UniProtKB/TrEMBL annotation:
VOC domain boundaries: 5-142
The keyword Isomerase appears for this protein: no
InterPro entries attached to this UniProt entry: Glyas_Bleomycin-R_OHBP_Dase, Glyas_Fos-R_dOase_dom, MMCE/EMCE_epimerase, VOC_core
CDD domains according to UniProt: VOC_like (cd08353)
Source superkingdom: Bacteria
PANTHER family: BLR5325 PROTEIN, METHYLMALONYL-COA EPIMERASE
Gene3D superfamilies: 2,3-Dihydroxybiphenyl 1,2-Dioxygenase, domain 1 (3.10.180.10)
Source organism of this protein record: Deinococcus enclensis
Protein name as it appears in the record: Catechol 2,3-dioxygenase-like lactoylglutathione lyase family enzyme
Keyword annotations: Metal-binding
PROSITE patterns linked: VOC
Alphabetized Pfam families for the sequence: Glyoxalase
């Protein structure tokens, strides 16, 4: 048996409104919103009384989905933003038309450039920014001429 597809990536955020405002700067759009709670949610999370609000977003091509989750209960467990070399989910990468233009739009929504914009082998321009909830959002611009 093989995986059918990667369905979505979920990010827990403290400020759902700010996160929902951040990702449209990348071209994502809101596909749906819902409060989620109940015995099944408690069971899969291994916690009692889970109450969350979710916003599901999708990429312009319709294939990628990002779930933004805000816990109403239990309270969030605060943590400093993870450094780039910490084990676990490292980043969410998006292919973009222009790193510079996208970076400018994201910075207007509070994104902070982690290092700098770099070019890899004349093929890609890349950078990492710190996005909502401290996650690393990677941007990649393909420099190769189509053909």
């Amino acid at each position: 048996m093989t995986v059918k597809r990667l369905d979505h990536v979920s990010v827990v955020v403290e400020d759902l409104a700010a996160a929902t405002g951040f990702f449209p700067a990348l071209g994502l759009s809101v596909a749906g919103r819902a409060p989620v709670e109940g015995a099944w949610v408690d069971r899969i999370n291994g916690m009692d009384g889970v109450q969350v609000d979710i916003v599901m977003m999708h990429t312009p091509d319709g294939h990628g989905r990002l779930e933004l989750t805000r816990f109403r209960h239990p309270p969030l467990q605060p943590a400093d933003p993870a450094p780039p070399n910490m084990p676990g989910l490292r980043s969410v990468m998006f292919a973009v038309e222009s790193v510079d233009e996208t970076l400018e739009r994201l910075q207007a929504h509070g994104a902070v450039l982690i290092g700098g914009v770099a070019e890899y082998a004349g093929r890609y321009r890349l950078c990492y920014v710190r996005g909502p909830a401290g996650i690393i959002v990677a941007l990649a611009e393909d420099l190769r001429v189509p053909g």
